[in-house]
UniProtKB/TrEMBL annotation:
GO process annotations (BP): alginic acid biosynthetic process
Chief location category: periplasm
UniProt protein name: Alginate biosynthesis protein AlgF
Compartment list: Periplasm
GO cellular component: periplasmic space
Family statement: Belongs to the AlgF family.
Amino acid sequence: MKNFTLFVALLGSLAAAEDNGLYDPAPPANSAFVRVINAPAGTLGGKAVTADKGTASVYVVVPQGEFDAKVGAAAGKLKVEAGKFYSVVPSGNRLVLLTDPAMESRAKALLVIYNLSKAASVDLKTADGKTTVVKGVKAGDSGNRAVNGVTVDLAAFAGDKALGTLKGVKLERGNTYAVVVTDGGVTLTMGSTKTK
């Protein structure tokens, strides 16, 4: 009986040790989550990040307060608050810090659209143009909407002109999606966080 108890205790400790390796460690309580959009390479608080043209990088964890950021040729100090999510967008030789919305319901998918094009205002609609998902996103700004999980064709419009289409977008509940509109087209990136 003693050997059996020892065996069960050993199995439990091995399972716990294995489980610890499955997940990244939880970020410190005073952390913010920051990513770059539309930047081939950069550093956020000393952490390297990349985002292909028109896409969003993973979120990296940085301590609240000021931190150094460099994205392409643009560099500077940015200030963030604990528990919030941000996107850094290069604009010429300066960096623009946009506050991203928090996921309020894991029962929905969160769509965030970033207008990095020259269009004064952009709408995110179904590809047929009949249903508006997010309306009136000004140049250099973002807009968002929580939606049900669905597979849908989406498009960004400037007035009646389609700027780009995303076919067969599978929006899953509990996930966030970045739709980035540039003068070169429209891209979609599912959000993720890297805590290491």
